[in-house]
Amino acid sequence: MFTTAGKNEIRNWLYGSASTAPNAIAIGIGTTSVAVSQTALVTESTRKSFSTKSIAPQVVKFEALLLTTELTTSTIAEMGLFNSTTSTSGTMFVRNTFAPIQKTDSIEVQFEQRVEVN
Amino acid sequence: MVSELARTLALDNKDKDIIKYQFATSEVSAYFKFFLDSFTGSDRGLRIKSRDVSSEPVWDRDNQLWDDNSNTGSYTYWGSGEFTSSQTTIRVVHTNRQYVEHFRDTFFKDTASTTATWTDGSNMISFTSGQIAQSLPIYLNNETVSTATLSVSDGGSVSYYVSANGGSNWESITHSQVLSFTNVGTDLRWKASSSATTSVYSLEVAY
User: Fold this and answer.
1) Same structural domain for residues B113 and B181?
2) How far is B131 from chain A (nearest CA, A)?
3) ipTM, 2 decimals?
4) One domain, residues B139 and B202
5) Which domain holds residue A76?
6) Which of A13, B40, B103, B117 shows a CA-CA span of 20 to 30 A to B8?
7) Number of folded domains that form chain B
């Protein structure tokens, strides 16, 4: 879900105020439902810089990779798109929850978030 | 007349032609036209992939040999570029349980199954008779999908199908229909086939 805070960051850019584009995906274990008013993950565990990003007309795709060696005992269930690589800081543009994934050192997990500007 | 003007303006109506008739008999002849412009960002889908590397070769630091990581102890992955197994999609979610597709990119295109023209920036899928467009999973979240509602904008001559079990069973669906799946499942996809040269401009599936 695209948040109000994220839309206001875009508004700031349109207005000419200081604004920062997303550069990281945060991953957490919170299961609280998403809401447009949220500004942070419920329980953030780690934050990863984008491994890649790409654009198509009116679309941006962001990707981040959680390595086998990271969060090896966590049950991840939420992610967010942020404009800071520092945990629990920055503007959250998007938050999503998903059925819990038991992260172990045997699996790597890739996140692909697609955003449309319309 | 003021109240009529206010009432008309209050309507979510882009073209206010109706207003001009209020002026037609007065000394002022005027034409009003208003447009509602919007600009926003939308979450158009999160996809999560996973790869089990437990049987991938790793450098065993304890024993100084190539090994797999099924053994305990210290090891170093040679790097993701050396992994031979492929990533598998394990989650796909959308805001408000609604997949919205304007065909601006090919994020959800099943390349192996699609014969119609669906490219980045095309803003549509173009078909000739007999061609097919098919999606990758549009919802995959360890949860049974039992219903789907389709909304489409197209040029006609297109038949639509949805599958709740990853394409094992396709069930016919039409615009605005609320389909209760005969074959429920956890992997929702859509498919479109054409019987003429035509296009699909947008497609939404609520589930």
Assistant:
1) yes
2) 24
3) 0.96
4) yes
5) 4-116
6) B40
7) 3
